[in-house]
Amino acid sequence: MPVKGTGTRLDPVCNMDVTGRDVEYKVNYRGREYYFCSYDCMKKFEENPEKYLSFHSQESAV
């Protein structure tokens, strides 16, 4: 997950900046923590994490 600034992460579902220390919604997937801006984003990720992870890996390869 890209680090945007000190303690800030990118929500892989909506691309919103999320501050790690204040985050309420997070998921550990394949040994890595993912942070979310909302419950809805977290649930979307949990339903199909590869959809969001493959989108970001394709985006960074461009």
Describe it for me?
The chain has 2 helices and 5 strands; from the N terminus they run E-E-E-E-E-H-H. The strands form 2 sheets. Strands 1-2-3 form a 3-stranded antiparallel sheet, with no helix packed on it. Strands 4-5 form a two-stranded antiparallel sheet. It is globular. The longest helix is centred in the C-terminal third of the chain and has 13 residues. Helix 1 packs across helix 2. It has 62 residues and is of the alpha+beta class. It has one domain. One of its GO terms (molecular function) is oxidoreductase activity. InterPro entries: Ferritin-like_SF, RNR-like, TRASH_dom, YHS_dom.
List the helices and strands and how they pair.
Elements: E1 3-5, E2 8-10, E3 17-19, E4 25-29, E5 32-36, H1 39-47, H2 49-61
Antiparallel strand pairs: 1-2, 2-3, 4-5
Organism: Methanosarcina horonobensis HB-1 = JCM 15518
Protein name: Small protein often clustered with efflux pumps
InterPro entries: Ferritin-like_SF, RNR-like, TRASH_dom, YHS_dom
